[in-house]
Specification:
single chain, 276 residues, mainly alpha, two-stranded antiparallel ribbon, 10 helices, 4% strand
């Protein structure tokens, strides 16, 4: 298994799309930060001018903490899309290049092979998320400095610089579970569909469907609590004054269960499928 995992990582580093994906993340970050650098200050000051008369804010209102939060909101659609395309290619490329048959001429079982794929997909998700966290925090603080964080979620919520950094870190960790769910879904779709372009379309549809239903009341207490679309934005709970830990734990455990079931389904489908 360890050898299979090393091989999968070697394939990822040899493929150009891995570096294109990381480059795309940097470009999106850059566009958001540059736009905010030239236009954001005046807007923030105008919106919060009256609040300055009643509250004292430490540092600039448009600061690194606020920019990381904005990047989280911006990239939380683009990042899973990039990851789903990248991860699905791990299996669609094997079908396209007809390398599966050669692989199984070796003493490798289909279950070991696909489990290694899923494990590397999860590891890749964590690495990309760390890359996003490090670059967004570094560039945001380098350009905008530090200061208190103001977030509007039902009401204006204020966090000191220290607390804001803690909340942002927790948000990245919580969001990681959502990203893992998306990546295992993309791998499972790729196993079933096989063809790269069709898989990318299916992944995009899945992502759009999820985001559309995220904010819709499903008129069912059960669906609003248990349907996967209601679990993927748990990271937002960390930007309320009081963190709803029970809801965060529930969402995280349930989403992890969905990820596990999706992985088991994909493994079963791959074992049953023909290799051609």
């Amino acid at each position: 298994m360890w050898q299979l995992i090393k091989i999968e990582w070697y394939k990822l580093f040899k493929q150009n799309r891995t570096y294109w994906a990381l480059g795309a993340i940097i470009i999106i970050e850059g566009l958001v930060l540059v736009g905010a650098y030239f236009q954001g200050t005046d807007i923030i000051e105008l919106l919060l001018e009256n609040l300055r008369k009643s509250f004292y804010f430490n540092g600039n209102l448009l600061n690194g903490n606020l920019m990381v939060y904005l990047l989280l909101n911006t990239l939380w659609f683009h990042l899973p899309l990039i990851l789903m395309i990248l991860v699905s290619g791990m299996i669609t490329t094997e079908y396209k290049d007809k390398t599966l048959q050669a692989t199984f001429l070796q003493p490798v079982s289909k279950s070991q092979f696909i489990v290694a794929k899923y494990l590397v997909a999860i590891q890749l998700t964590i690495v990309v998320l760390l890359f996003l966290a490090i670059t967004s925090i570094f560039f945001s603080n380098a350009l905008f400095g530090q200061g208190d964080l103001i977030v509007y979620l039902e009401s204006l919520n204020f966090f000191t610089d220290t607390i804001a950094k803690q909340r942002i870190l927790l948000a990245f960790i919580s969001g990681g579970f959502s990203m893992v769910f998306y990546t295992v879904v993309s791998m499972t779709l790729a196993i079933q569909i096989k063809e790269a372009t069709a898989t990318w379309i299916a992944c995009t549809f899945f992502l759009v469907f999820t985001n559309l239903f995220l904010k819709i009341d499903l008129n069912s207490a059960f669906l609003n609590q248990w349907f996967y679309v209601k679990l993927i934005d748990s990271w937002q709970y960390f930007f309320y004054p009081e963190i709803a830990w029970n809801q965060v734990y529930f969402n995280t455990i349930l989403l992890s269960f969905y990820s596990l079931m999706t992985t088991l389904l994909g493994t079963y489908l791959f074992i049953r499928k023909d290799l051609d």
